Amino acid sequence: MAVGLDKPLLGNGSKGEVGSTVTATVINLLKNMVGAGLLNVCVAFQYASVMGGLLIMLFSAFVCTGGFLLIGYCCSKTGARTFRELWRSAMGAKTEKTVDVVLFFHTLFSCVGYVTMIGDFCIKSASGLMPDSIFARRRESSILVISLFAIFPLCLYKNLDPLKYTSVVGLAITAVSCAYIFYDVIANAEEYGAVETLQSHFWYVQLDMFKTLALFNGSFSAHYNAPTYYAELKEKTFFNYMKVSFYAFGIATLLFTAFGLAGFARFGDEVLGNVLKSYSPDDPMIQLSWGCMMVSTVFNFPHAFQRMRSSFNALLNKGPEDNFIFTTILLLSASVYMGVAFKDIAVIKMIKGATLGVSIMFIFPALFFIHLNEPIRFKRKCSGDINDPMSQVRRRRRAKWLSVLCVIMMITGFVQGALALMVHYNII
């Protein structure tokens, strides 16, 4: 097993050790969920209408929060501090490779999405700054040059500490870009017909609504790191973890909804998967946003790539740095090839949400709880007097209902993912 692939942030997980407060953990979780992916939620309202998008957003937030809470509950009972440890406690060590498979494809799709966005931002920026250059006409040229001279050298870092502040800068850049979109649509609402757009698209039903659900699920995807957030807490109690979950998912829901509606109101049926691509290159602020977002994405790429490389080596039973150069070239080439092939970041995010998203957020947490729903397998006793017959009855009743909900979560997760893919590929 590769060392350091699934490493927790802090020490041994005991209550009271040095760690993060609830507020700090909420901020870290929001940084994981809310980033450049915020730019993809606008098109989801085109798929499902305004009211349909709002209802699907609420449903997605509810079930995603439920899955996140299930993972934290299992961690509080087993003492697991990483997803791998939780899988081992619930499913056994023999199937542990599943974690490496899921993590590899999860990070692969993230890297492909980054490459796609780099191509988007570069070609749009060049179309305004260098309209006659090859970079304004062929996105693959931009991707290849940036990958060779910027991304590849960064991927050769074995220690990413020098890049630890870039995610904060990236969030700041995203925040400024999103704030400009809010300002633009509010200041020019009458010119754009923003209110009329929302009214004319207020309600309709079409199969594309399942793509909306997959997109929203992908936006809330932070479940693989849920055990790490539990281990990060200074006081590791499920109550504190609940507060982190409700605050973070609540804030993220408001941000996704407000920004999604604002972007859709601005562009209506012309909105693209990356809302910044919908703008004209004549706007200097948008040109600046494209350039800054491209730089931010380049610096965020190595974080996902390092984990993809480690998980790939783990699948081959090698250390995280074995065959370092060859593996780096191989995986970066695959990411670049797929990033050139996929031209819409919303499609990548939808596929990721419909497959890996439903697995990590719904199916796996439900399986963990069902397999661990035997008091003898929990390292910590449940609340209540274990010698009190009524307490035992209450625990069994609660566990039974939770198991039923877990089965429903698994079924709905599988069905919604399958429907999203079938709709996208015109099977139905």
UniProtKB/TrEMBL annotation:
Ranges annotated as spanning the membrane: 54-73, 101-123, 143-160, 166-183, 244-265, 285-302, 323-342, 354-372, 401-425
Major localisation: membrane
Keywords: Membrane, Transmembrane, Transmembrane helix
Cellular location(s): Membrane
Top-level lineage group: Eukaryota
Lineage of origin: Eukaryota, Sar, Alveolata, Dinophyceae, Suessiales
Start and end residues of each Amino acid transporter transmembrane domain: 20-373
Membrane topology term: Multi-pass membrane protein
Native source species: Cladocopium goreaui
One Gene Ontology cellular component annotation held by this UniProt entry: membrane
GO molecular function: L-amino acid transmembrane transporter activity
Protein's name in the database: Solute carrier family 38 member 8 (Amino acid transporter SLC38A8)
